[in-house]
Specification:
10 helices, UPF0014_fam, transmembrane helix, transmembrane, mainly alpha, membrane, globular, Putative ABC transport system permease protein, about 250 residues
Length: about 250
């Protein structure tokens, strides 16, 4: 696919400007974040394209690339949850568990034949989805603990362990984290044409083949996200229950 880089750059600049203008009019103080995120995406995707192209020529390096992606995803999620770097191992374990189970099943049944050129992009999408679910679950649990700290103290006074008292809020945090993935899966093919499906069509695959792979991506994401969100909540229940949050009301 031939791309006119000048026109491509102009469209990106205009879309970024639209985002900034809308945020300004809406009073949203994330304009700088939007610009930085765009520039980072351009730089990071350009760099990762070179790295992935190299990994395709050196299959042994594909595993190392995924480990780096996993570590970066866990760090990003840890920052979003905003409970300090001490929870990084918890988040890393949650994202790794969700990603590993999903990718291992796909590889074991050999439904993505062809080697690293298919497995690496699939695993990267799964890691990204698990990261988002971990972030959303951790943020929701953190906020619920802060807002309803009195209930946690009451539970502890009745004999519950702090972890048990916090775990009462876990199901709602997990449900909130899984909502975007569920909506994406429900809407696939009716409201939206997901990225993998469109990419495969542009690459020459038949609509049927593209649909099969996209379904595998969506269902795999749900599996990874459910594991990551649930494990994140379980892992954070202890740290959150040990000390009253500084931002808790009252």
């Amino acid at each position: 696919m031939d791309v006119d880089l000048l026109r491509f750059a102009i469209v990106l600049a205009v879309l970024t400007a639209v985002t900034v203008v809308v945020m300004t009019r809406a009073g949203v103080r994330l304009r700088a974040d939007a610009v930085v995120a765009t520039l980072r995406a351009i730089a990071q995707l350009s760099l990762i394209s070179l790295v992935i192209a190299w990994a395709f020529r050196h299959p042994a390096a594909a595993g190392a690339l995924l480990v780096v992606m996993l570590a970066a995803a866990a760090w990003t999620s840890t920052r979003r949850i905003a409970l300090g770097s001490a929870v990084y191992p918890v988040v890393l374990g949650a994202i790794a568990a969700g990603s590993a189970v999903t990718v291992a099943l796909v590889v074991a049944f050999d439904v993505l034949p062809g080697g690293p050129e298919l497995v690496v992009p699939y695993a990267a999408q799964v890691i990204g989805g698990a990261m988002v679910a971990s972030s959303l679950a951790g943020q929701r649990l953190r906020d619920d603990v802060a807002d309803r700290w009195g209930e946690i103290e009451a539970g502890v006074s009745l004999g519950l362990m702090p972890r048990q008292a916090v775990a009462e809020f876990g199901p709602r945090a997990v449900a909130r984290a899984l909502t975007p993935g569920l909506d994406q899966t429900r809407a696939a093919g009716v409201v939206t044409l997901p990225g993998a499906y469109v990419g495969l069509l542009l690459g020459g695959a038949s609509p049927y083949e593209a649909a099969l792979v996209q379904t595998l991506v969506l269902v795999g994401l749900l599996a990874a996200q459910s594991i990551a969100a649930s494990t994140t909540v379980l892992g954070l229940a202890g740290p959150l229950g040990r000390q009253r949050p500084a931002y808790a009301p009252g």
